[in-house]
Please model this.
Amino acid sequence: MARYIFVTGGVVSSLGKGLSSASLASLLKLQGFKVRVRKLDPYLNVDPGTMNPFQHGEVYVTDDGAETDLDLGHYERFTNISAKQSDNITTGKIYSDIIKNERKGIYLGKTVQVIPHVTDKIKNFIRKDVKEDFVICEIGGTVGDIESLPFLEAIRQFSNDVGKQNALFVHLTLVPFIRSSGEIKTKPTQHSVKELRAIGIQPDIIICRCEYDIPILQRKKIALFCNVNINNVIQTIDVKTIYEAPISFHKEKLDAQVLKHFNLRAKKKINLIQWKKISSSILKKNNTINIGLIGKYVNFKDAYKSIDEALVHGGLVNNVQVNIVRIESDKIKKNNLSKIFKNLSGILIPGGFGKRGTEGKILCIKYARINNIPFFGICFGMQLAMIEFARNVLKLKKSGSTELDKSCLPIIALINEWSKKGKLLKGTDKTLGGTMRLGEYPANLKTKSLIMNIYKNKKIFERHRHRYEVNMNFKNKFEKKGMIFSALSPDKLLTEVIELKNHPWFIGVQFHPEFKSRPMKPHPLFVSFINAAKKSNEKF
Model:
C-alpha cells in the first residue's frame, strides 16, 4: 500500500512548499523508493492556462498535455519523473465536474454539498492512478485561507480512511528573525499550527523556514507548543541555490524522520554526490556570460521559471555562470538597441501571448540576426523571428500574426486561416481555455542541419503550448532567402524548428524545450545555445 505525505503551508505564501516537496521526493527516490508528487490548488480557475503570469507565474505543460502549476516543474527537475494530468487539480476543476454531474442527475436528487461531494472528489484524486511507494501531495495556499478549507478537510478524512500509519502531515512555516530585537520568533509558527489543529490536523513534522539557525531553546519551544517531537522540528535555512535543498534537508534528517514515521528502512544507501556537484558548479566563480531574456513579464521571475533553470543547466555543462539580464520588451526602441546589446552574449525570446511588446522583440531579433549574435526563439519567439525575416528580408512589409492583427499578411495564423482547403483542425477553436496544441508531439529533423547536430537524432519529442502555426504557403519564399525549415511535424504540415544559414547560432523552435531540461540532464538546445554565447563572449 502507498504511503501518503501531505505538505501544507502557514503564516505566509511562497515559503517553498514546492521545493520542499520536490526535495523530499528526490531523497526518497535516491533511497530506492518509487515516488509521485501531486499539487492541489485552491483557486477557482479550472487550470492556470488562462491566468496572467504576473498572477501565477509560468504555466508548466506535461507530456500528456496538461496546463499545470509551475511547482510540477520543480517536481520533474528534482526527481526526473515526468508528471501527468492526474498530478494537478484545482477547486475550479472539482466544482466544474461536480456541477456537470449534478446537471446530468448523477447524484439522484441529493443535496450537493462540500462534505461529502467535494471532499470525496478530492480524496478520489489523491488515490487515483497510484502505483508508487509514496505519494506526496502539496496543498496550495496557506492554512487559514477560506479557499483551502475543503482540501484540508479532505486530507483529514483521508488520513482516517487509510490509517494514521499510512499518512504523514508536514507543515511548513515561517520563523522570522526580528532585526530590531535580534530575536527569532516562534509565535507565527505556533499560531499557524493552532489553525491547523483547529480543523483536526496535527502535523507530524514541522519545517521551519528561517534566515538563521534556530537555537535549541526555540526548537524545544516549537516542539512543546505544537505537540511534535523535537526531532521533527526541521529547519530550512535560505540556500544559495535551490539545488542545495536536498542536501540541506538530508543533513536535517527530514527523510530519516519520514521513514521512521512509516516504520520503513531505506532500500539502498543514499548518494548525494550529483546534487553536491551541481551545487558546487553553480556556486563556483566561473566565467560569466550575459544572456538577455526579452519578454513582457521579466519583472516577475516565476513567469519564466523553467527557462531560468534551463539556462543555468546549460551553463553547468559549459562551465560558465549565466547571468540573466531581464529586458522589458515594451521599453525597447530603435535608438537604444546598441546600449541594450552592449554586454550581451546572446538573447532569448520566450513564449508569450498578446501584442504588447512585440515590436520591441522584433527589433532585437533583427539586431541579433544582422550582428551575428546568438539568438534563441521559443514558441512566440520563433514566430516573431519569422515575421521579422518576412518584413526585412522578404520585404513583405505587412507580415504579421493573425493573433495580433487579422488584416495582416498571415505569416503566422490559425491553420484554417492559411490552409488552402480551409480545414479546421484541433487548436483553432475560439474558446481560449484548453484549445491549444498541448503536450508532447514528435518532429522529424533535417539531415545536415544545426538542429540535427545538436540533438544527434532524426526524431525528437517535445512539449508544445500554442494555438497559432507558421503558414507553410510561404515556406519556399523563406528557403530561397536562407531560412532553413530544419524540423517539421511527421506529416510535414507544421513547422517545428527554423534556423538561418551563415549565422553562428540562430534557432527558433515552436515547442518548449525548457520543460524537459534537468540539472542532471540539461537540454541539448540550451547547452548548445550557451556554448555559442560563450564563444561570442570570447570575441569581446
